[in-house]
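Input/output pair, single chain:
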Amino acid sequence: MRKYEHELKVPYYLLFAPDEQEMTLYRHTGERYGSVPPDANGRCLVKELDIEVGLLDGWVRFWHQGILLPLPADLQHALEQTQRALEEAQRQLAETTQRAEKAERELAELRARSKNGKN
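Output:
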């Protein structure tokens, strides 16, 4: 912590003790770190990013504008679902396009027969 505070002057420093379920967020004041007090929800604000950090279900989690940000695994799962849905929509579009093209060909044949029958 000393190196971050005095040499690097990292703006924020987060300490998390998972066994104790304790988290402390420190903000650099320009000279040293001071702890960021949690709000009524037990979250600490990172003002510059409009992000709150807090504990949820044993993990350090982040909120943006009060909305819990998903975990990477949740994002990956949602992406895979979206990709599957897109593939299905593309398959259905291809089938619909084929049916429409077939109907257009049949209609053109019917028109041609009708025209030939009138002549």
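The first strand starts at residue 12 and ends at 17. The CA atoms of residues 42 and 54 lie 6 Å apart.
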